[in-house]
């Protein structure tokens, strides 16, 4: 997934990534990635993300995201 790191919380262990196709997603991360928040803030990144999808009996979908790897985007 490519996008821009627009926020995050070291306390909650989350990052917010703005993507062109999904908007802003909130993903869980481990401590190693939250330590990069200040260095990567508001910069283009590439992330390997595990996406889990749950569908309700009525067809509504909910997606959960976990970042496995995060790096600055190289052009």
Could you please describe the fold and organization of this structure?
With 75 residues, the protein is mainly beta. Helix content is 11%, strand content 59%. The chain has two helices and five strands, in the order βββααββ. The protein has helices at 31-34, 37-40; strands spanning 2-9, 14-19, 23-28, 44-55, 61-72. The chain has a five-stranded antiparallel beta sheet, with no helix packed on it. The longest helix has 4 residues, at 31-34. The protein is globular. It starts with a strand and ends with a strand.
Gap from first CA to last CA? 14 Å
Largest sheet: 5 strands, antiparallel
Pattern of helices and strands: EEEHHEE
Backbone shape: globular
Strand content: over 45%
Side-by-side strand order of the widest sheet: 3-2-1-4-5
Q: Which radius of gyration do the C-alpha atoms yield?
A: 13 Å
- Classification by helices and strands: mainly beta
Percent of residues in helices comes to: 10-25%
Q: Quick one: how many beta strands?
A: 5
Uncertain segments: none
Contiguous helical run count: 2
Mean pLDDT: 93
Short overview:
By secondary structure, the protein is mainly beta. The protein contains 2 helices and 5 strands.
């Amino acid at each position: 997934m490519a996008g821009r790191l627009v926020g995050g919380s070291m306390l909650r262990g989350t990052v917010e990534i703005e993507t062109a196709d999904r908007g802003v997603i909130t993903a869980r991360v481990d401590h190693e990635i939250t330590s990069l928040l200040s260095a990567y803030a508001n910069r283009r990144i590439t992330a390997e993300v595990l996406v889990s999808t749950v569908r309700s009996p009525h067809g509504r979908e909910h997606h959960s995201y976990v970042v496995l790897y995060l790096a600055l985007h190289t052009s």
